[in-house]
Amino acid sequence: MKVLMFGWEFPPIYSGGLGTACYGLTKGLEHHNVAVTFVMPKGPENITSKHVKLLVAENYFKNTKIRIKKIDSILMPYLTIESYEKNLYLEKQSPSKNLYGRNIFEEIYRFSERAKIVAQTEEFDIIHAHDWMTFRAGINAKKISNKPLVVHVHATSFDRSGGTNINQYVYDIERKGMHEADKVIAVSNYTKTIIVRHYGVSPDKVEVVHNAVDFSEEQTYRIEKTDKIVLFLGRITLQKGPDYFIEAAKKVLERDPNVKFVVVGSGDMEPKMIEKTAELGISKNILFAGFLTGEDVSRAYQMADIYVMPSVSEPFGITPLEAMKSGTPVIISKQSGVSEVVDHCLKVDFWDTDDIASKILALLYYETLHKTLKEHGQIEVKKFNWDIPAGKCLKIYNDLLKK
Amino acid sequence: MNVCFYFQVHQPYRMGRYTVFDIGNHSNYFDDQKNEEIMKKVANKCYLPTNKLLLNLIKKHKDKFKISFSISGVAIEQFEKYAPEVLESFKELSKTGCVEFLSETYYHSLSFMFSKEEFKEQVLLHKEKIKELFDQEPKVFRNTELIYNNELANFVEKMGFEGILAEGADRILSWRSPNYVYKSKTTDNLRLLLKNYRLSDDLAFRFGEKTWNEHPLFIEKFASWISENQGHSVNLFMDYETFGEHQWEHTGIFQFLEILPEEFFKRGINFVTPSELLKQEPKAELDVHNFVSWADEERDLSAWLGNKMQETAIKELYLLESAIKKSNNPKLLEDWRKLTISDHFYYMCTKWFNDGDVHKYFNPYSTPYDAFILFMNALNDIIIRLKLSQKETPRNPSFNLTDTPSSIMG
């Protein structure tokens, strides 16, 4: 079985959950003897991977002439319209060094054109495209090769925007991708519902494949600390609910002024969150650590006493699994895919900051609770091995090829 | 052949949203609205229709159809508050003379394992209530969830009971049959009545189960199974909620029950009550060191005391007992006693989670961890109330939040 896979990022070049998920899934597929050619638009010339044939479209086709129509835009895959203007302003102040530069529309178009050439050159049985940025590439590859197309939905416009101000351009691409695909994979039932309800896709066509977590060897760090630490880790955007985290922190600090809150990540809401922290008079207790990768992330999970994921809308949410793996008890939003499959955690409504704060305090003070959740969480998380979702994908490929 | 029916009637006080921030501010731990809703729902689906049906059967079959109940004190309280018509219908049943009421702990608690004194008080409270409502004085005791061992048998005999119910678990019977009356080995004369779990569970758990190879279970088949048995009596012990709540009406459980007596009579099967069985000469003595219960495959205490949270919660609860009783504060004692209801610990059970079998899992809270948090929050509030009643100034609750509140009491 050979799969031509289109993605947007792949470790070590990645910015978030999508890269992590693609890495884990392809590793799982390798265990099922599936050969994956993974194509992403940009990256360093010498990038390679042990378990996939990694193609960077830009480098691979350096000499191929593709005419690109330039559209000036700074839209990023995970930005919302609201943050667009702010970023435009920030861009003017200091041009960004973002992975994909200023022009995502251009990038998507270029990628989809190059996908045609990839589809002519590479050998494969099936096409698998991750999220809207790669859907056009997937559709083009299907047209050229006549091979079945699977689109994998890790997030929708409705998650990113909190349900309002949907970007029509992005929505149209998402919708087209889902309708042109032979099968749609959703990362949760939660996301399947959105796909069926908002994109008009028949439920029969959508298969739920929950994400998993990577169990590669990980270093255990010796961390000496005196303070109790509560962690937020994710993009600081509307979707991730950082404002609810700050509000809950305020309520906890009214009871116990010694707790420390660490916010790991960056995003368009970061300035607003820093301001809010100052307004509430809790700056001393809230540390904004910025965007971290690799071992710094592991260190953050290990250092924390509690991990909180207060997402407003989370298609899946791999981070709680990573925290559980590190033995850190988690409090997760019920509005998430991961809450469908995890039992050994505390579940909250993201807007219910009284409940979040109360549960943080309970975890900090009820030692038995902390210990039990830590132990049971570490046992439970073991069942979220990438071989399982990879096996489900393989079944989907096989079913499509039988048709 | 004889059949002895015993139905357990119980509804706990479920806890409501009680956060850390409520500690010290108010003490409404229980969700009155939810408890009322559930009581009314179960009354309509189970208690009222089944009581009516049983009353008709008793009238129809004169003195030949007999049954027994054990109703927890907290279920009775909730009937009084939310569904008095159910209590009336139980009184009607009692008046027929064909219905026996058994004794249990008022709060459906695990008190025997943690405080003999509290156990005794709860049994006496329940006894008074049964006397007051039904004018009966129970001679037979049944402990919460049929939890049983030698020590309990001794204690209960000293309290004046003549018989006790227990699970007919394989590990206490080995090759013996549950259909005989036994004597508890360490007692002088206490009769042991054992549940025939196969035949009981055919009704309680499997009746409506379409994947069961005996489904659908018709009364003729069931009656023939009963008549194949030998001994003093086949003891069919089960939750009363089997009728209409666990086995829904559409499974045909009511029609099954309606024709059950006459189908039994046809095959020479008669009905006896637990106290009638006390007259039987015991077949043998049974020696039971470790606790058995009627819960789950394990038939042990792991549903209530299987993890650290459950152990901590219940241990801490009983460590407060003497301070609570010394405080001479009836409302505080009542709230504390409501926390002794065994269901609170059952909701903290995580053993099914590990099997991934969440379907078996019945819980009013979203996780067992929530159950523990609610319980501990309530205990932390109880500490504040204790301090206040001792005329001590409680320290700021937020800094003393703990899952070992007994340590604060010193």
Keywords summarizing the entry:
heterodimer, A: alpha/beta, Rossmann fold, 6-stranded parallel β-sheet, 13 strands, 44% helix, globular, B: 410 residues, alpha/beta, 5-stranded mixed β-sheet
Give a brief outline of the structure.
Chain A has 403 residues and is an alpha/beta fold. Chain A is built from 16 helices and 13 strands. In chain B, the strands form two sheets. In chain B, strands 1, 2, 3, 8 and 9 form a five-stranded parallel sheet that branches.
Structure notes:
The complex is a heterodimer of chains A (403) and B (410). Chain A is of the alpha/beta class. Chain A contains 16 helices and 13 strands. In chain A, α4 runs parallel beside α5, α5 packs parallel to α7 and α9 packs across α14. Chain A is globular, with a radius of gyration of 21 Å. Chain B is α/β, with parallel strands linked by helices. The longest helix of chain B has 29 residues. Chain B folds into two domains: 285 residues, 7-stranded beta/alpha barrel; 107 residues, no CATH class. In chain B, β1, α1 and β2 form a beta-alpha-beta unit. In chain B, strands 1, 2, 3, 8 and 9 form a five-stranded parallel sheet that branches. A five-stranded mixed sheet of chain B has the order 4-5-7-6-10. Classes of the chains: A alpha/beta (403), B alpha/beta (410). Chains A and B meet through α14 and α15 of A and α13 and α18 of B.
